[in-house]
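Regression test case RT-17, inverse folding.

Input:
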């Protein structure tokens, strides 16, 4: 059998090494080439899954035979969704996300390192591989904020690092508890084995704390608004679009596998609802569009956690599809805000006005993104939200629909932003830079996939049969 999964991990590693060795002029080309190749492979696998009705691939390579530890890779419908989403976001970020950046080579190298971690994590077949690629991506994320960020980047990156060290420690604790259990395994499937209740509870608490940091979930979220705001456009696209999905993917694996999860599902759903409303009300008080969108991202990951906590087939499927959709939409919004800031020199809602007059492309992309974020039909977010709330309703009843009110708050805030900065035009803002075609192409790419999988969700959902 051809080692397609190993190849998907090896390609970004090779391009990362090449970008580090070659000069600045090749860095963006290498980043675009690597991300495009992985995206093409992922789309080809989706086509294969659509034709066959399912997909399950696995590869294993001897790593530490004396400890019965292998380097395992696997691909199922959920990981295929997330690999494809990361491919789309990474390619858009490589193509157009470097707007306003000075150090192009460093940015491209960090993007390729992030691609190594993201691709490896979503293709991981056991917790050792998951943990290794988790930490690889955290290194890239830290330097995106610390080295390429703006303003208060040092404080933001330090706060990010402290939280992520805690998350990695908790994840490692959970992995060690699993490995030292009677099952003596690092495989995801070991979570379904006959583990003692105390061991299951320790694994559940430790791992969920790690995943709550990355999603993020209240109250482990305070690193997020600063990190998202201070990171460069490309970095924020990756943090919000992909890194936050690490937590969602891990939570989906753990909660759907441990038998003890059913006893705590209602508590996790309640925490998801609290996190959703906390994010919604925090967003309402923001004046910086980028900071407001960071809370919108937190709100959406709360919806994902609600779907996962339902532990129903439709809820888990919905959570996976919602992560797929949210990854693309948040990348679109942060790319658009990055172009807006570079073009008009402002992100403050109180200052910007009449942007539609001289920034039509920026305005139309933001308006489309706002409609997509609140789940307008024919967008991918609509499909994800419907499945999540159907799953939550089947498990928790009518109370699970209360978080729908947060989407109304989100829509109201986005309407206010659109009216304030795009349409009020008595004395419109003047651009200092005109969006070029490559940035327009990046925005169009994300819009295309959001519509494609919203209009034809069966292309990927067919594999969940």
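Golden output:
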């Amino acid at each position: 059998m051809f080692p397609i999964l190993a190849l998907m991990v090896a390609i970004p590693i090779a391009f990362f090494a090449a970008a580090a060795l070659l000069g600045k002029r090749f860095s963006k080309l290498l980043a675009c080439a690597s991300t495009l190749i992985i995206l093409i492979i992922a789309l080809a696998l989706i086509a294969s899954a659509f034709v066959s009705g399912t997909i399950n691939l696995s590869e294993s390579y001897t790593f530490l035979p004396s400890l019965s530890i292998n380097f395992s890779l696997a691909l199922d419908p959920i990981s295929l969704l997330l690999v494809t989403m990361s491919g789309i976001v990474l390619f858009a970020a490589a193509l157009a996300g470097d707007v306003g950046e000075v150090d192009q080579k460093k940015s491209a190298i960090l993007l390729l390192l992030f691609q190594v971690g993201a691709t490896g994590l979503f293709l991981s077949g056991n917790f050792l591989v998951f943990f290794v690629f988790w930490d690889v991506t955290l290194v890239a994320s830290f330097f995106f904020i610390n080295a390429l960020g703006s303003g208060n980047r040092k404080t933001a990156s330090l706060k990010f690092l402290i939280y992520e060290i805690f998350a990695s420690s908790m994840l490692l604790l959970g992995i060690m508890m699993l490995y030292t259990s009677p099952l003596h395994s690092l495989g995801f499937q070991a979570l379904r084995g006959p583990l003692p209740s105390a061991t299951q509870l320790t694994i559940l608490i430790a791992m969920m704390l790690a995943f709550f940091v990355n999603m993020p979930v209240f109250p482990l979220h305070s690193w997020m608004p600063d990190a998202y705001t201070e990171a460069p456009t490309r970095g924020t696209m990756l943090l919000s679009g992909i890194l936050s999905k690490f937590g969602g993917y891990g939570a989906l694996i753990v909660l759907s596998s441990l038998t003890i999860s059913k006893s705590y599902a209602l508590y996790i759903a309640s925490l998801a609802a609290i996190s959703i409303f906390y994010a919604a009300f925090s967003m309402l008080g923001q004046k910086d569009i980028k900071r407001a969108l960071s809370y919108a991202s937190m709100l959406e990951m709360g919806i994902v956690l609600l779907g996962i906590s339902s532990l129903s087939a439709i809820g888990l499927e919905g959570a996976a599809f919602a992560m797929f959709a949210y990854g693309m939409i948040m990348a679109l919004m942060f790319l658009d805000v990055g172009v807006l800031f570079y073009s008009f020199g402002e992100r403050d809602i109180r200052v910007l006005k009449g942007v539609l007059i001289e920034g039509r492309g920026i305005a139309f992309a933001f308006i489309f993104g706002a409609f997509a974020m609140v789940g307008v039909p024919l967008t991918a977010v609509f499909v994800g939200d419907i499945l999540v709330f159907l799953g939550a309703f089947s498990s928790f009843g009518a109370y699970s629909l209360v978080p729908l009110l947060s989407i109304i708050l989100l829509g109201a805030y986005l309407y206010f932003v659109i009216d304030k900065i795009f349409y009020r035009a008595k004395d419109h803002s003047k651009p200092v830079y005109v969006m070029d075609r490559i940035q327009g192409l990046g925005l169009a790419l994300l819009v295309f996939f959001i519509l494609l999988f919203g209009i034809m969700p069966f292309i990927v959902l067919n594999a969940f049969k």
